[in-house]
Amino acid sequence: MALVKADFTPGVDKQTSTYGAEGRWVDSKNVRFRTGLPEKIGGWEKVVSETIVGVVRGMKAWVSNSGVRYVALGTDRKLYLYSDGVFFDITPIRKTNNLTNPFTTINSSTVITVTDSASSVSIGDFVTFSGASTFNGVDMNKEFEVLTISGNDYTVAYPTNATGSGSGGGSVAAAYQITSGTPVSSFGFGFGVGPWNNGTWNTPRATSTIALEATNWTLDTFGEDLLAVRNDGALYIWDLSTGTSNRAKAVNTTNGFSANAPSSSRFVLVSSPDRHIFLFGTETTIGTPSTKDDLFLRFSSQEDYTDWAPIQGNSAGTFRIQDGSKIVSAVRSRGSILVWTDTALHALNNIGPPFIFGLQQVGANCGAIAPDSVVDVNGVTYWMSQTAFYAFDGAIQKLPCTVQDYVFDDIDSTSQGQITAAVNTDFNEVTWFYPTNGSNVLNRSVTYNYIENIWYTNTGFTRTSWVDRGVYSNPYATEYVPTSISNNTPTIYGLTAGATILYAQEVRGNSNADGVAMDCQITSGDFDIEEGNQVFLTSRVIPDFKVIEGTVAAGNSTEVAITFANYPASSNTRTFSANIDSNTKFFSVRGRGRQANIKISSNAIDNDWRFGTMRLDLKPDGRR
């Protein structure tokens, strides 16, 4: 009998049939390729046990001048800061109203009615009361989520029943946080949707082509301080010198700043090294949200986030991009600011006075699909467009992709704006987490190894935001659990479901998924056992692993399965499998066929592996 080696090219190929992908891999879950060999990805663990409110879409890590590390996290409902094991709520306050006896209780009920004709709250907003006097067994000096609204009244939930009925509370300050956003993208329905004179007057539209964007934050640093913009919102700054007990503030004269920044923009970015602050998709008239233009951008005067109106004596300025319907994303790269619309790529370069910046279109028909779909790695930018992946290193390149149809034929068009990209430099990876057709959350990912020029896919886990290692020794990433209620302190009363977990990824020596087994597997395409029409009988499979951890005795070994068939469309197949560990020399089979495929899998605590190759012990067995 002869020993025949089965070799496989690195990467996953889903562009052809299973038999057409001979000598390649066709499916993977929680597996990557490193120096050509497939291996189980690194494990992850919670950074802290606490969770935060909402879904994170926007994360920024930085180090203060004194060496303190911070991570800012923007959710659809809050803005948080994480440092030294603690989350701090720095959500901006929209307004503070002074009220007199605003609370109404009902005996033996937890529902509290609040009367405030100037609250302008929406369901799901947050309010913190202070200065209230205790009455009917309730102390309202806490933070609450707004549950219902009726006229000038809204309701909140107290943790225990009131001991009486009536109104009270005395002199109360009600601090209202910025209005909560939306966790997922959706189509707009109802009145005012669609073109004029379309449908019957005075009836709401039941169908729509207008997508309402999920809430997204862009976060950048200005020195030690944090700049933040929520899509279509104001420019906020969190001043590190004021401490973690203080919230971010909108940059306007009401909050004590010397001038007003635009009050409605899509996102923010700070140029380097000159430190102009850019606002994209912003107002043509500062302070007038109705003049917001999704293709208009402004930059502030140098080193001044309050000076936005271009006048003689400052370096502020504006541009309007022509190609596209909206500015989607921007990053710093190669001494420029690269700006994507939904159809094109432009570059902003500092050219000095009097114009300060010059705008140049770099490419067309290569727009970005989502605000967080663009990353820069060592001066090369990678991004996901509506139909392909691209790179820019001074020239635009469309990246050949062996999983292109698998990805782009199954993306949800409504939720595609939620796509987020992640850089994992230790493994030379750019990963895009995306929603499949019919899903309103991210539920699949595709990874490009930019050194080995290979692709692989994953359904094993998704993350809504990601920062690469650098500030911290591991990448940090977030997972949204829509059915979980945040356990963050201080307690928010009446809080509804939807919480985010912060993870440290690629934890050294950890092959588990936050303490539980990680399900991982990889499947090859069908390969001819030998060329020709000969049927072969295989008696032994001899696996070769570079790394294999876990034992058969401990129940955390790795499974290798091989399936034999005579033809690509054969329904009469036979599969043999074995649990193997470092002591396994071979396993016996009685496989008969012209072709075969293999599958390597594991789903056990503390199991790890890195596959090398495999040999088959076979002999001819006729041609039937």
Task: Please tell me about this protein's structure.
The model is unreliable at 189-193 (pLDDT under 50). With 624 residues, the protein is mostly beta strands. Strand 43 and strand 44 (476-481) form a beta hairpin. The protein starts with a strand and ends with a strand. Strands 2, 3, 47, 48, 50, 51 and 53 form a seven-stranded mixed sheet that branches. Strands 6, 7, 43, 44 and 46 form a five-stranded antiparallel sheet that branches.
Count every beta strand, where a strand is a DSSP E run of 2 or more residues.
54
Alpha plus pi helix count: 1
What fraction, in percent, of the residue positions are helical?
Answer: under 10%
Q: Average pLDDT across residues? A: 94
Structural class: mainly beta
The end-to-end span amounts to 20 Å
Note the beta-strand portion: over 45%
Largest sheet: 7 strands, mixed
Low-confidence stretches: 189-193
Described by the principal axes of the CA atoms, the overall outline is globular
Assembly type of the chains comes to single chain
Radius of gyration from the alpha-carbon trace, in angstroms? 29 Å
